[in-house]
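[job 4417] fold queue: 2 targets
>>> target A
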Amino acid sequence: MAVEVLLPKIGLTMQEGTIDEWLVPVGGAVAEGDALLRLATDKVDVDVEAEAGGLFHPVVPAGATVPTGALIGWLLAEGEQPPGPAGTPMPTGSGADAGASPPALNGTDAGAAAAVASVNGTTGRLLSSPNARRVAGAADIDLTAVRGTGPGGRIVSEDVEEFLAALPGDPGTPIPPGGTSSSPLVRKLAKERGIDLSEVNGTGPGGRIRRSDLDAVTPAPPHRDAAPPHRDAAPRPGDVLPFTGMRGTIARRMHASLQEMAQLTHGYEVRMDAVVSLRDRLKEEWADSDLPVPSLNDFLLKAAALALREHPLLNATVREDGIHLLGDIHLGFAVAVPGGLMVPVIEDAVELPLPEMARRSRALAQAAREGRISPAQLEGATFTVTSLGGYGVDFFTPVINPGNVAILGVGRLRDGVEWADDRPQRTRVLTLSLTFDHRAVDGAPAAEYLRTVGELLRRPLRLLV
């Protein structure tokens, strides 16, 4: 029985996604749990796994942007045809033959026709994915010699990898003995990571090895298409930066935030002497332990969460029927990434001891920068903290994340002065910038929240537990 493949909705705010690359060739066998496609969303790129087994038949090309829930392919039984008009094969050229299925190719005929099948009949350009071109360039391979097995004869990275594996002196990675099976993608990943598939326990149907089984042996490295560090991606004069992907999402959400809310910002200076002193002490006391030493931002995250417990108006959302005070405190924190920013979420932040909060914030921030973070880890923030202290900024006006009623900005740690008996004393201070939605929170409650955060930072031992 034919099984529909629908574009999944990853996260509450996702409305559409782009099929960056099909990871399975047309007609290829797929088992439940195998990686089927690389999906680019407005927040993160992610591999989508098949929810059932069968022979894969796509109905939209790689590169297409479609709404969530749309039909993008079928999983068929042997000899089964896709039902309805949606099963019409995708065109591989133009003109009268545009809707016809390409002829079946095998053996030497397939290799000889590779370049023809992979050329767009309208533009004359070779159809290939960006990653396929990258892999081919690194190996000095002429793509016209590679047979494309993607939609419409498009060359995908797996085609290049299998072409390389077939070259003399490189037999590729064999399927392990004993009948244990795996997809071409899994075998390719195993080869890249130096994993012997005969030593991997497959958790799929019939002992089939899945990508997650490889991750259990050796954690996945950053995705091959991860963007370069921000310093290497700096825009240059004359560039046009389109409002697409992450940049487009940020533009739309921030514009909507400022249009739909009555935003006001308070600035508040807090003493950090006790935090700096405690952190220096923890560096010595925890030097031989596996406890992570909290950063200044970790102290601020914990203080922000604890203060929300005393000031629930700041941990709320505005809906048509009124202001909803939220029971859970899920703390988002902004992380700069190439092309924009992400806001990973620390769930139930108020319940976490400071060392555990430090561990989670580091892991989430690293995953965001390396392109490994999941959409689920970016959803559900009830309050957000963002810091520009590392860039030398003292005070700024952060924009509220839609769905929240406030966001806390953190400035740089700097020297201050406090007078005692007409004598100046050096202090360590920073400025907090609290932007709040005046529809839900008035100026006085917002100021009280900042004062509570400041008091917690003055006596930071309470933040450790």
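>>> target B
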Amino acid sequence: MKISTKGRYSVTALYELALHYGEGPVSLKCIAQQQGLSENYLEQLMVPLRRAGIVQSTRGAQGGYMLAKSPAEITISAIITAVEGPIAVVDCLLAEAGAVEQRCNKACTCVTRGIWEKVCDSISEVLEGITLQNLLDKDQQKKNIGCIG
């Protein structure tokens, strides 16, 4: 499984919003500049994130985006799932999650299916266990000990 730029850029953009949590809306231009991302691409990413209730938008000259919940309540899993869809390492698991229509006719007898389910469960567990607040805390720790990488 490979997380696409949609997933990676969404996490990066929401990290920037987490840095400004409680300060009001942040413009896409500001996010793009601070994180080195395309403003046009960010605009596309915010649509599913808004639909998922992860971000809120405000129109107007002082408008922009802000987190709809605290950084501690937003998991990396929620972000990735909002923009990428269900997390699965093989197509047959996507069918089970309702992301594709056709269910594999070998699902009940497949010898390897259990392996892919365990891999998928492990990935999901890790992504569910990391919040934007965890990223903020880790970044602060790096700054406190003088580590940049």
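[job 4417] complete. Note on B: The chain has one domain: 5-145.
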